[in-house]
Design brief:
Fumarate Reductase Iron-sulfur Protein, Chain B, domain 2; FAD/NAD(P)-binding domain; five-stranded parallel sheet; 23% strand; 71 strands; 1487 residues; disordered N terminus; alpha/beta
């Protein structure tokens, strides 16, 4: 790359793929750091998998409550462009300048117009399984993914053209009208039919229904009775539909072009209708006196009543079509004359003649053509047929002739045909009905000669037909003339085929013909003469009504194009779509096809009454409900009809969008293991075996049972619920994955706890191999679960059986030395994590590699960097992980993605604009109160409706309402709308905590034009429903009190404003370990200065004592490289042997004083003052100092770290150490340190494998409680077992005992919990897996920085799930083992994540501060210095006027000074005395 290219700024935008918590975190970090973000998700809503969770561990907070504000922030951020229903197709270019293509699927709803009113959803007749609820319950074809979906807009699901529709020659939307009939909407169904089939009543009676042949329901039992349902739509809907058409008849465009159509059959009338609707002047000519063609003059009345023909042909002519009856072309008017009078001509004359036989006796009287016979009868005549009739032919016309003859009085009707019974072309049901009516069929007989006397036919001689078709299926009959039979007959009717009358073409030989038909282009139906088109049977030979209709549509389309000068063939094809399979996850309810009633045989052969009686309305509805809705959306267009905003756009098409970006973050999420592949558990067969996510949905208020935990089999609350771990994980033999999915143990524990909270009668049992509670506070959570009644059983479950009577489930397992069979009401399978669907396609598009398990391959010490520069990965696509780790590496990916394009920062961003702020200071308070259900978090205890009623009666309250989730996007919109509608100037939200939600609601006020501080929040969740779960009445009363207090306070609120302050664009990093070094380098790469302050004399932290990772990567080489790069970077300043002495300031501008020591002169320290905009705390951890198990008393007892050093440095003696015993959890998971140190198991396995490498014969034992090799580390655990490392489980109540025998032997006693036996080991070396603890002096540092510590002296983040890098003190961020014990790669990721969070501040020139700050009333101040002494941030000072002064920029709003001021000279804005006193008075009813 030349210098000129290097100076070109990078593209200042990033593509983030994935709308889950990882994608949103990356997008927000990048957008807040000065980049334009394109957030691309295949889903219709952001939220990802977390949106399906009920609660999160270990805090048991509502997942949607946590997620809602994050989703709204993402949607409303001015620099995030959201692309839903989109996928990544191609990535070209290089880091800093990529060109990407994304494919956006249509939503079919204009999200700019949609108001999410829900009218469309109510109107939609199609219900399908609800994917969001794991296919439990249903949703509509037009839907929101879930109630709180973001964007809060509808979309339509379309799978493609259903087979019924694609099989219909006319393209009639069968699924559409069937769906409407299932709702009893017959008129609406008829409207759908009429879009493509103008003859609904006709076709519903006589169609051969190819749609039913293709119907997918037939794969399960019987096809849907589609044709009969079409008839039902007509029979029960035509009056209402006719009235609607009359009332809503559209204004037709008036065009000058004239079109003549020859023939008023179904093809001609269809073409006439289409052209009339397009505004053309249409004239139809026909030889008959009335329109209908064969419908009127060919179909027997017992099949098609005349009134139906009249009604449906009349409907078409009513469009303004001129009908010219009794006109024969070529006789009454010539084709040439029509060409002169009209701009285009369509020939649709059909096949009006019968084919006759040239046999001996063919001229005898009584031999009739079938078509003419049917025409005469249909038009009201009664041809004489005599007592005995023979019909020749095997098709539908022959059957019609035979049955008609029977009704005309023939006592005996024979039908002879060439074909065998199986080969007969007539429809099978027609043949069966003919047999029922006494027709005698003679298959495989052909006519030899006619017999007669006196010039009249008396019979026919038939000869045996041995074959109708040759080997190539061509018509080529073969006979055996020696085998004959004779049938006596008074009348013989020939129905062996139809022919066209082409005599009218003789005057103009230019129109080409072929095989007795008009030759026309098969696609456009254009003839050889321009402007003349042909359609129907005259082109394609004898066919059905529906095929004639299809042909009429095509001819009309060609005429329109011809007259408008357009290409006739463009965009048209004869190819059919591939058949659409049944929709996935649909299990049709049992129900065989309804059979329509028929007139009794004895009655129906007496006259021409209609044979088929059709369905009753009830039968039609029941039959329609059998439809599988293969296309999902039926395109009935009911949604379009009811949408007042006209937001539904069924015409939307898929599109490919090209974007320019500088880097990419891939966060596509994950899939869950398909539990049907683990057949031993009975999932998919036993109704009461569910997956963990299905159980999660049962727990959720938005789930299919609205948080009522019930058994699927009988909807009865379960008592005993079993949770089986590792389904699809840690599976080396079956269909699962060999890795650990990392989250299952904890989410099962959470679900067990929450289940008991929902129903105290539930008794959960968790069957597990290892409880992998490796995260922060996870072990405490498990212990809390045990205390709450969750039973843990360490056992591997190999099979689940069902009791067929009770549907209970029997689990057999081994425990306490015996086999136990235990019965449960439900079984929950903890299914594992799989790579996202389409991972391989995504990898190919992005140009990255995948690891052996299908997740993104990342570099060893660049945990979020893929194999392609400029492309980064976040979330579970990197590998299985929990939400906090997902958030961490999402921020890390944002950090690297931003650093890669730092030169493009702030080049493409736009600021957010707000409406002008209303001045309401002179208005009387008008308060709006919004009460949240919070799913069932609140509403499960508190009577929310009662709280709303009480709030509505409070003075000053003009509006009160309740909502399922007040933090959801739709409710935020309702709040903003209510502010306008009710002229609100104060808002109270009674829901959860200001800690996570106050910024969201304040932002809503700003967007509505109100000052954000006219808002107050009442916490009726944490302070009410959660702590009074068993006292609903008292909880409700308290909630009313809390709301009353909030209303009293908010009425006294005042407008407060923020002010800009400059940002010092430097970062202070406290700690020079691997996390601190990584953070400093990344800050520098972002284009900002970094300062490292390290208390030790050298950099490196705890990693200095380690040698390799479990995977074999060289930690010392990494550390050496990091230090060298830090030392060489001009943007990084390093202070070692440094100590923090003072700290003050605020985010954007901190001031820190440090002292520096010199080697050998520690007592002489010089001070240095540093100014910086942010702080990153990376103080690390240290190894526990222990005296357990003879450590420090016997040189054979070492720590894991000491062993690692000896192994790496070559000092370990393989000959001397032939037996090595490891003891896990030394100083972890005990009374003093009740947490897991996370890294010990991996370090033990790493060292054990190293020992086995050096001495394969060595005996290596690991004494453990749980092996916590989560995610891909499970591979190494398996390798250790395969190489002979023996793992012995012990219970914490019986830890190993170590003693030194008199003869010098080290002796280890341990009880193997699996066998129940006491084991004695005599190791040559005993290795202790000692835990990690917080570093010395951390309390002093935390106090100085005002940072919270937990009981283990690790830092407490803002939020355990969604803010694991942030501190409550703005501008200070956290990374590394000071947060909690972690691996080097995890510390690196968290360091990079901390930089991303820091850049949201450093990238700004100014920050807005103030608002909730302390102010001094100088008239009351006595300069007593109380405020100066008590302020933890050293903000107050005595000014030149000898009164206290508080800098609003520096004030942190803690209120300490206001509380301590003896003269009450200081007030904390937003918490003034009068406001708080009003709140207290409100508690006692004084509002």
């Amino acid at each position: 790359m030349n210098e000129k290219q290097e100076n070109v700024p990078a593209v200042g935008s990033v593509l983030v793929l994935g709308g889950g918590i990882a994608g949103m975190q990356s997008a927000l970090d990048l957008a807040n750091a000065g980049y334009l973000v394109h957030l691309v998700t295949e889903s219709s809503s952001i939220g990802g998998r977390m949106a399906q969770l009920d609660k999160t561990f270990p805090t048991n907070e509502c997942a949607m409550c946590l997620l809602g504000p994050r989703m709204t922030d993402t949607l409303t951020h001015p620099n995030i462009r959201l692309h839903t229903c989109a996928s990544l197709e191609k990535v070209e270019g290089e880091k800093g300048n990529f060109t990407v293509q994304i494919r956006e699927k249509p939503r079919y709803v204009n999200i700019e117009e949609c108001t999410a009113c829900g009218d469309c959803e109510q109107a939609c007749p199609v219900s399908v399984p609800n994917e969001y609820n794991q296919n439990m319950g249903s949703r509509k074809a037009i839907h929101k993914m879930f109630p709180q979906a973001v964007p809060n807009k509808y979309l339509i699901t379309k799978r493609g053209t259903p087979p019924c529709r694609s099989a219909c020659p006319a393209g009639t939307n069968a699924q559409g009208y069937v769906a409407l009939i299932s709702q009893g909407k017959f008129a609406e169904a008829l409207e759908v039919i009429h879009r493509r089939m103008p003859f609904a009543g006709i076709c519903g009676r006589i169609c051969h229904h190819p749609c039913e042949t293709e119907c997918n329901r037939g794969q399960f039992d019987d096809p849907i009775a589609i044709a009969t349902l079409k008839r039902a739509a007509y029979d029960y809907g035509w009056e209402a539909e006719a009235a609607r058409e009359k009332e809503q008849r559209p204004e037709l465009p008036a065009r000058q072009e004239k079109v003549a159509i020859i023939g008023a059959g179904p093809a001609g009338l269809t073409a006439a209708q289409d052209l009339a609707l397009a505004g053309f002047q249409v004239t139809v000519y026909d030889a008959l006196s009335q329109p209908g063609g064969m419908l009127r003059g060919g179909i027997p009345r017992y099949r098609l009543p005349l009134e139906v023909v009249d009604r449906e042909t009349g409907r078409i002519l009513a469009l303004g079509i001129k009908f010219v009856p009794n006109t024969v072309i070529g006789k009454d008017i010539t084709l040439a004359e029509l060409q002169k009078q009209y701009n285009a001509v369509i020939i649709a004359t059909g096949l009006q003649q019968s084919r006759m036989l040239k046999l001996e006796g063919a001229d005898l009287k009584g031999i009739l053509p079938g078509v003419a016979f049917l025409r005469e009868t249909a038009l009201g005549g009664r041809p004489e047929v005599g007592a005995r009739v023979v019909v020749i032919g095997g098709g539908n016309v022959a059957i019609d002739v035979a049955r008609t003859a029977r009704r005309l009085g023939a006592k005996e009707v024979h039908l002879a045909c060439l074909e065998s019974r199986i080969e007969m072309p007539a429809h099978p049901w027609e043949i069966e009905e003919a047999l029922e009516e006494g027709i005698i069929i003679h298959p495989s007989w052909g006519p030899k000669r006619f017999l007669g006397e006196g010039g009249r036919v008396t019979g026919i001689e038939l000869m045996q037909c041995t074959r109708v078709f040759d080997a190539e299926r061509r018509f080529n009959p073969q006979y055996n003339p020696e085998v004959t039979q004779t049938l006596a007959a008074d009348t013989i009717i020939l129905a062996i085929g139809q022919a066209a009358d082409l005599s009218f073409l003789s005057e103009d030989g230019n129109i080409a013909t072929s095989r007795g038909l008009i030759a026309a282009d098969p696609l456009t139906l254009a003839t050889s003469v321009p402007g003349i088109f042909a359609c129907g049977d005259i082109v394609r030979g004898p066919a059905s009504v529906v095929e004639a209709v299809a042909s009429g549509h095509e001819a009309a389309e060609s005429v329109k194009r011809y007259l408008q000068g357009e290409d006739l063939a463009a965009g048209r094809s004869l190819e059919k779509e591939p058949k659409l399979d049944p929709p996935p996850n649909v299990i049709p309810f049992p129900g065989r096809r309804k059979i329509q009633a028929m007139a009794p045989v004895a009655e129906r052969i007496q006259d021409f009454r209609e044979v088929y009686q059709g369905f009753t309305p009830e039968e039609a509805i029941e039959e329609a409900k059998r439809c599988l809705n293969c296309g999902i959306c039926s395109e009935c267009l009911q949604c379009e009809a009811v949408c007042k905003k006209k937001a539904v756009e069924h015409w939307q098409q898929e599109k490919v969008v090209e974007l320019k970006v500088g880097s990419l973050v891939l966060a596509p999420g994950y899939e869950l293991f398909d539990a049907t592949l683990a057949g031993e558990y009975g999932y998919g067969y036993y109704a009461n075996v569910v997956t963990s996510l299905e159980f999660e949905r049962l727990l959720s208020a938005t789930g299919p049972t609205e948080s009522h935990v019930v058994r699927p089999s009988d909807h009865r609350p379960p008592k005993k619920v079993a949770f089986i771990q590792c389904v699809g994980s840690r599976d080396c033999e079956g269909e699962g994955s060999p890795y650990c999915s990392a989250i299952c143990c904890m989410y099962s524990t959470k679900e067990a706890i929450i289940a008991r909270e929902h129903d105290a009668n539930i008794e959960p049992t968790i069957f597990y191999l290892d409880i992998r509670a490796y995260g922060k506070n996870f072990d405490r959570y498990v212990e809390a679960a045990k205390a709450a009644g969750v039973r843990y059983v360490r056992a591997m479950i190999s099979r689940v059986e069902e009791d067929p009577q009770t549907k209970n489930l029997i689990i057999q397992y081994y425990a306490d030395g015996k086999i136990i069979r235990e019965e449960f009401d439900m079984v929950v399978l903890a299914v594992g994590v799989r790579p996202p669907a389409g991972a391989e396609k995504l990898a190919a598009a992005a140009g990255i590699e995948l690891n052996p398990y299908g997740f993104a391959k990342t570099l060893p010490f660049q945990p979020v960097a893929t194999t392609r520069p400029g492309v980064y990965v976040a979330g579970v696509f990197q590998g299985p992980r929990d939400i906090p780790e997902t958030v961490v590496n999402a921020s890390a990916a944002a950090s690297l993605a931003g650093a890669a394009i730092a030169s493009g920062r702030n080049t493409l961003v736009t600021p957010k604009e707000y409406p002008p702020e209303r001045d309401v200071s002179q208005e009387e308070p008008r308060v709006g109160v919004f009460i949240c259900h919070c799913g069932i978090n609140i509403a499960g205890v508190v009577d929310v409706k009662a709280v709303v009623e009480a709030a509505a009666k409070l003075p000053g309250v003009v509006h009160a309402e309740d909502n399922l989730y007040t933090c959801s996007q739709d409710t935020l919109k309702k709040i903003k709308d209510a502010i306008q509608e009710y002229n609100l100037n104060r808002v109270v939200v009674a829901s959860c905590t200001i800690r996570t939600h106050q910024p969201l609601f304040r932002e809503a006020l700003r967007e509505a034009g109100l000052n954000q501080f006219y808002f107050e929040m009442a916490n009726i969740r944490d302070q009410c429903s959660w702590v009074h779960r068993n006292e609903p009445a008292s909880a409700t009363a308290k909630a009313i009190d809390l709301v009353r207090m909030a209303v009293a306070k908010v009425k006294r609120h005042e407008a407060l404003h923020l002010q800009p302050v400059p940002v010092v664009q430097k970062a202070l990093i406290i700690g020079g370990g691997i996390a601190g070094l990584t953070a400093a380098l990344n800050i520098a790469e972002q284009g900002f200065d970094a300062i490292i302050v390290e208390r030790e004399a050298e950099l490196g932290g705890q990693v200095r004592h380690l040698r390799t990772t479990l995977e074999g990567e060289d930690l010392q080489a990494l550390l050496k490289d990091l230090i060298a790069r830090v030392r060489a970077n001009p943007r990084i300043q390093v202070y070692t042997s440094a100590r923090l002495e003072d700290f003050g300031g605020h985010q954007g501008h901190f001031t820190t004083t440090i002292s520096l020591g010199e080697p050998g002169k520690e007592h002489l320290r010089r001070t240095c003052k540093l100014e910086h905009g942010v702080v990153i705390v990376a103080t690390g951890s240290q190894e526990l100092k222990t005296g357990a198990y003879l450590y420090g008393q016997d040189e054979r007892v070492v720590t894991n770290t000491q062993l690692e050093q000896a192994l790496a440095d070559g000092h370990w003696d393989a000959e001397k150490n032939k037996q090595v015993v490891f003891i896990q959890c030394v100083g972890s998971r005990d009374g003093d340190h009740p947490y897991c140190s996370r890294t010990c198991c991996a370090q033990t396995i790493k060292n054990a494998l190293a020992i086995k490498t050096r001495n394969p014969e060595a005996l290596v034992y690991v004494l453990y409680r749980d092996i916590r090799t989560y995610a891909f580390m499970e591979d190494y655990y398996r390798q250790a077992r395969e190489q002979g490392v023996l793992f012995i489980h012990y219970e914490p109540e019986r830890p190993p005992e170590v003693r030194r025998r008199d003869i010098g032997l080290l002796e280890v006693l341990v009880k193997d919990s699996d066998s129940g036996k006491d084991l004695v080991l005599w190791p040559d070396q005993l290795v202790l897996a000692t835990g990690a603890v917080a570093p010395d002096g951390v309390e002093k540092l935390a106090t100085m920085l005002k940072l919270p510590l937990n009981e283990d002296k690790f830092y407490v983040e803002t939020h355990a799930k969604l803010a694991p890098i942030d501190f409550p003190s703005a501008g200070i961020f956290l990374c590394g083992a000071g947060h909690a014990p972690k691996f080097a790669s995890e510390a690196i990721a968290q360091a990079e994540g901390a930089v991303a969070r820091a850049c949201t501040i450093l990238s700004r020139e100014n920050l807005m501060v103030g608002g909730v700050v302390a102010v001094v009333d100088e008239n009351k101040c006595a300069a007593c210095l109380t405020c100066v002494r008590v302020c933890p941030y050293s903000v107050p000072r005595i000014n030149e006027r000898n009164v206290a002064e508080i800098n609003a920029v520096q004030c942190m709003g803690c209120g300490t000074c206001a509380g301590e001021c003896p003269a009450k000279a200081i007030q904390l804005q937003f918490y003034k005395d009068d406001q708080l006193l009003a709140k207290v008075a409100g508690l006692f009813g004084e509002v």
